[in-house]
Amino acid sequence: MTEVTTEVSQEPLPPRVPGDLPLPLRSLIEAGVHFGHQTKRWNPKMRPFIYGARNGIHIIDLDQTARMFKRAYEFIVETVGRGGHILCVGTKRQAQDIVIEEAQRSGMFFVTNRWLGGTLTNFRTIKGGLERLRGLERMRDDGTYEQIPKKEISQLEKERARLEKYIGGLKGMGSHPAAVFIIDPANETIAVSEARRIGVPIVAITDTNCDPDVIDYPIPGNDDAIRSIRLITSAIADACIHGTARRKDLGANRDREGGGGHGGGQGRPEPMVYQSRGRGS
């Protein structure tokens, strides 16, 4: 399995013009975000986000998708800018590789295999598993394996591989995430339940079979097509990168302000203040 890294991409992202939509309608259409499930497989609570139906398939209203994604995007930027971290959850097969790639690019933590019950509500146990995983990795790297029998090495490697598979994406996460981004909340019911129980905000791609009432920042869209998942997940990763850059800018500005003279504030640069955009959908 690919080793987990949490290094944030250093490539600068192009600045967005205030008021622009992070995901334009053309991009949403080209990625097939508007295709929902069969009309017989729907949740009536998604009715406000459905434009109509064609050939037995619900069509999602992309005007609402674009506006609601903008709201979710700005929430992620603000949350990461304040020092929070995001947990990305996508265990369905077509989402796994995308989640790993975008999480590693942006510094998100992730879960791409089965969600272990208690990942959030019993985080102390998960932290114990992470410590065990780090210990096994140290034993592998520091030459300890050379001093123990091959049979024991095999058992330890199986244990390490199992821990890496299920919680490897959480390495470095020392506390609950500030928010959770979920692909297909109807498939990740335990993750949704745990996040709601401990009060962690949820951002999620909500297809026409999902319940938007349990999601804080629903993004109506196709949660099955690879292109749709990649488009939205990549944009969420961009939001994390923008938030990280904002946090660094604010920290550097505070350092400059604190390093000024003591002459009543004269000659100090004016602090750069970022105004958060409105969250209205």
Offer a quick outline of the entry:
The protein has 281 residues and is α/β, with parallel strands linked by helices.
Overall 3D geometry? globular
Derived structural class = alpha/beta
Mean pLDDT: 87
Largest sheet: 5 strands, parallel
Please, could you describe this protein's structure?
By secondary structure, this protein is α/β, with parallel strands linked by helices. It is 43% helix and 12% strand. The chain has helices spanning 25-30, 62-81, 93-106, 123-141, 150-167, 189-198, 226-258, and strands at 35-38, 50-54, 57-60, 86-89, 109-111, 179-183, 202-206, 217-220. Strand 2 and strand 3 form a beta hairpin. The protein is globular and about 65 Å long.
Helices, strands, pairings?
Elements: H1 25-30, E1 35-38, E2 50-54, E3 57-60, H2 62-81, E4 86-89, H3 93-106, E5 109-111, H4 123-141, H5 150-167, E6 179-183, H6 189-198, E7 202-206, E8 217-220, H7 226-258
Parallel strand pairs: 4-5, 4-6, 6-7, 7-8
Antiparallel strand pairs: 1-3, 2-3
Using brief descriptors, characterize the structure shown.
281 residues; 5-stranded parallel β-sheet; alpha/beta; 7 helices; 3-stranded antiparallel β-sheet
